[in-house]
Design brief:
It holds the Pfam family NLPC_P60. The protein has 5 helices and 17 strands. The protein is α+β, with helices and mostly antiparallel strands and 234 residues long. The radius of gyration is 22 Å and the shape is elongated.
């Protein structure tokens, strides 16, 4: 088995192409491929390497034209390793012969949404902070974010000030969405949820508990106030 592994690694070095690296499992006495990345070329100077795949992501470093290691991708960005540090670079500045083998990488916002969905069905409790026994809308958002060591304010109108404003068309999974549910939308925030992608958001409804709703519904379209991106800072 060791000879096989060495041979596979040697072929990969000689070809200079993307290959799987194999590992043994003692329990099943079998081998499974796992993705290890591919080398590509960064084009240009002083290219932003960001902590999040968005122009709002924090700049971790400025990289000049050089080789880098691609670890994953989404529609417009590559997750890369540059000088031993991981970050995201726009695909506009990366030359790679073939990225069809590069797996999709979930970003932090998507992981936050996935975590929040685990609590669908939790009852609504005014002032509640427990993701299993009961939460209110801002308790849900605060506790879900806390699961990723991200500290945000406790009440909805303060949470709106914790991030940077984004338009509805700019919303990405993990962003917060805010509403005025007083009956007359004068922009006074009274409800918050987490944008889940595909026009949906996760929130603690006062009658049905934690659930997914559509932003395009008449009620939430009428009462929508703003979106905010917390992850810009992390």
């Amino acid at each position: 088995m060791k000879k096989i592994i060495k041979a596979v690694c040697l072929i990969g070095i000689l070809w200079g192409t993307l290959i799987p690296v194999y590992a043994t499992t003692t329990a099943k006495n079998n081998i499974f491929p796992s993705y290890t990345g591919v080398t590509a070329q960064l084009v240009g100077n002083e290219i932003n390497v960001r902590n999040y795949p968005s122009k709002y992501g924090k700049v971790l470093m400025l990289a000049n034209e050089q080789e880098l290691h691609i670890l994953g991708q989404n529609d417009k960005w590559y997750r890369v390793s540059v000088k031993g540090e991981e970050g995201w670079v726009s695909k506009d500045f990366v030359e790679v012969p073939d990225d069809s083998f590069i797996p999709y990488s979930k970003v932090l916002g998507e992981e936050i949404v996935d975590y929040g969905k685990l609590f669908i069905g939790t009852p609504y409790v005014w002032g509640g902070n427990d993701l299993r026994s009961g939460v209110d809308c801002s308790g849900l958002t605060q506790r879900v974010y806390a699961g990723f060591d991200i500290d945000i304010s406790r009440v909805s109108y303060m949470q709106a000030k914790d991030g940077i404003p984004v338009t509805k068309s700019q919303l990405q999974p993990g962003d917060l969405v805010f509403f005025d549910t007083s009956g007359v939308n004068n922009g006074r925030i009274s409800h918050v949820g987490i944008y889940a992608g595909n026009g949906q958001f996760l929130h603690a409804d006062s009658t049905r508990g934690v659930m997914l709703s559509r932003l395009s519904s008449n009620y939430y379209t009428r009462n929508y106030v703003m979106g905010s991106r917390i992850l810009h800072y992390f």
